[in-house]
Specification:
The structure holds two protein chains of two kinds. By secondary structure, chain A is an alpha/beta fold. In chain A, 47% of the residues lie in helices and 21% in strands. Chain A has helices spanning 2-21, 120-141, 152-167, 183-201, 213-229, 248-262, 276-287, 301-307, 315-325, 328-357, 361-366, and strands spanning 24-29, 38-43, 50-56, 62-66, 74-77, 86-95, 100-109, 171-176, 206-210, 241-243, 266-272, 290-295, 310-313. Chain A has a six-stranded parallel sheet, sandwiched between helices. In chain A, strands 4-3-6-7 form a four-stranded antiparallel sheet, with no helix packed on it. The chains are: A alpha/beta, B mainly alpha.
Chain lengths: 369, 232
């Protein structure tokens, strides 16, 4: 009886020791990916001082894929891995001092997953933000009054059109150097629609030089529709929306020339801007034009703030169309954005406090890798 | 119908692209790549539209003898010369209709297109970029005028950062002992750039990202239609 008991106790105590001291090497599908990676894991006694990982290639030969450091215990093989294929690996551990080596084998099948679980927190956040926006849109549709703070930069549009009409000078609208795949350009074009409508109403000339061909066709369509909506199709001039060049500084040179020759009464710079922002804004300032700028590029905002009368900062650029349209549906979405902003602020505060207290789980679940 | 079809396409494509972010399995994993290729193909065709617009607008100014018409003519000539050089003798490794133009390369040292590119275009481009130095100076002068409490703060921060980034600024506070090193101008400049400046920039980026989500949602749901030319 006592021998049996000692035997059981010995097994309970020694088995984990045996288990964990034993070297192992496993290959398994890399989780939550498109089936283009295999995850390798190993544990070795510290008597080895060189590691090599090899994989069987298409000709059935072992090919070295990595030399991990001796203290590493994982490796992600994403080199020419295809979904639904089986891959065989071997880990070779060398011990030159003992003139010994150990070879461990493993294999795995790469599988494409139907959901990336690492992005689950991101999906939840996205659903929360979208939910907030949609709920406010529905609330606005039901007739609820929504307060939206005044954005001076957008209120300036009437002033700009009025000024251009009085002076008999054109309005210059620059949608930046981004293409249509950038949301800032689309936001700029939605503002162009409102501006073109107002300029058509007051018969003010609107000049729109663009730097991308795709933006050209869209901007022309936007301005044309605005003229039609204003009941002034006769005042639409397709040649006032024109292509200059794709080149950044060539585009700046062209616009600077237009500003100096045409002396526009008002300039609008709304879209994607990089190093050209200050060159444009300062030239416009020198001509005495009333200037409104807006971009989501944080590094260019100071230049616009200094040289322009009004600046739309970051989100204001995206809010512009909704703000100007005064449609309840669109205004509701702005309130939804504000609620999402509050959620983000609370998460930042919670995250900062938890990090200071030494709890890292919030940061960890929000990190994608 | 004119509005409905583009809105439906926008909605379907938007939902597919959004889903592809969370579904790594095919066909979703390759959707983005495919759509980007489509975009490149369409923009390739759209370039012709841009060039035609350029030629038309400039030609009209020249034909009408508009004010400064000579500049428009210069633009058209430059356009034609670069186009011809590229078509006739190619660019970089690509051959043109007349081959590589070995005789011209022997004289100029480069293909005509590359010669014009590196000897004219690049210098003109650099000239425009260099203007930025002067514009920064004039803009900074206006920004640093003390008018209010905020502009005073701006000026103080700017002076500290500028001094902290120069060798003379470093020497001003180099005599301070090590236990006072947080008062060294480079450290103050780093602090201003790393904390208040970074915090403000991130705030703008986060709010802009939320703005993009809101705008995208409005476009996907068909609430925002200005980019289609109107709301009707």
């Amino acid at each position: 009886m006592s021998k049996t008991l000692i035997g059981i106790l010995s097994f309970v105590v020694l088995f984990p020791v045996f288990l964990f001291s034993n070297p192992f090497f496993t290959a398994k599908d890399y989780s939550s990916d498109n089936g283009k990676a295999i995850s390798l894991e190993w544990q070795l006694p510290n008597t080895f001082n060189e590691l090599r990982i090899e994989r069987i290639d298409s000709t059935n030969a072992w090919v070295k894929i990595a030399n991990p450091a001796i203290d590493e215990q994982t490796y992600k093989d994403a080199n020419e891995i295809e979904p639904d294929n089986r891959y065989s690996y071997r880990l070779i551990a060398f011990s030159p001092l003992q003139q010994d080596s150990l070879v461990l084998l493993s294999e795995a099948v790469a599988i494409a997953q139907w959901f990336d679980y690492r992005k689950l927190p991101l999906l939840i956040l996205l659903l929360l933000v979208c939910g907030a926006v949609i709920s406010y849109i529905l609330s606005a549709r039901s007739g609820k009054e929504l307060y939206i703070r005044r954005i001076n930069g957008l209120e300036s549009m009437d002033e700009a059109v009025g000024r251009a009409t009085e002076k008999g000078k054109p309005i210059l609208f620059v949608p930046g150097i981004g293409d249509l795949d950038d949301m800032q350009t689309i936001a700029g074009l939605t503002i162009l629609s409102q501006l073109a409508y107002k300029s058509a109403m007051y018969n003010a000339e609107l000049i729109v030089p663009v730097s991308k061909s795709m933006v050209l066709s869209t901007a022309r369509e936007v301005v044309k529709e605005a003229h039609l909506k204003a009941g002034r199709p006769d005042t639409y001039r397709a040649d006032n929306v024109f292509y200059l060049t794709d080149d950044q500084f060539g585009f700046v040179a062209g616009i600077d020339g237009i500003m100096l020759r045409e002396q526009p009464a008002a300039n609008f710079f709304l879209g994607v801007f990089y190093a050209e922002s200050l060159i444009l804004a300062e030239t416009g300032f020198a001509t005495g034009a009333m200037q409104t700028a807006g971009t989501a590029q944080p590094h260019q905002l100071p230049f616009f703030v200094v040289a322009c009368d009004y600046t739309l900062i970051g989100e204001e650029l995206f809010a512009a169309s909704a703000y100007l349209s005064k449609e309840p549906n669109q205004l509701g979405s702005l309130k939804g954005q504000d609620l999402s902003k509050l959620l983000i602020v609370l998460m930042i505060l919670a995250g900062s406090i938890m990090e200071m207290l030494g709890y890292h789980w919030l940061k960890n679940i929000l990190m994608l890798d | 119908m004119k509005r409905f079809v583009p809105l439906l396409i926008t909605f379907i494509v938007g939902i597919i692209v959004l889903s592809s972010e969370f579904i790594p399995h095919k066909p979703f994993s390759s959707v983005n790549e495919g759509l980007e290729n489509w975009f490149l193909i369409i923009s390739g065709f759209a370039i012709i539209l841009g060039q035609l617009s350029l030629i038309k607008v400039n030609s009209m100014k020249v034909a009408d003898k508009a004010e400064n018409w000579k500049f428009y003519l210069a633009g058209l000539i430059a356009f034609a010369v670069m186009l011809l050089c590229g078509i006739l003798w190619g660019t970089q490794d690509a051959k043109g209709l007349l081959g590589n133009g070995d005789l011209i390369i022997a004289i100029l040292g480069k293909k005509p297109f590359e010669y014009l590119f590196s000897n004219i275009y690049q210098h003109l481009s650099a000239t425009m970029f260099a203007l930025l130095a002067f514009f920064i100076a004039s803009a900074a002068y206006r920004a640093f005028i003390v008018r209010s409490f905020e502009s005073t703060l701006l000026m103080i921060a700017a002076v500290l950062v500028m001094l902290g980034r120069t060798s003379i600024g470093t020497s001003f506070t180099a005599w301070l002992p090590q236990q006072w090193k947080f008062l060294h101008l480079p450290n103050i400049a780093d602090f201003i750039m790393n904390y208040p400046n970074n915090a403000a920039q991130r705030a703008i980026m986060i709010s802009a990202a939320l703005g993009i989500v809101g705008s995208s949602l409005r476009i996907l749901l068909g609430i925002e239609r200005s980019y289609l030319g109107g709301s009707d």
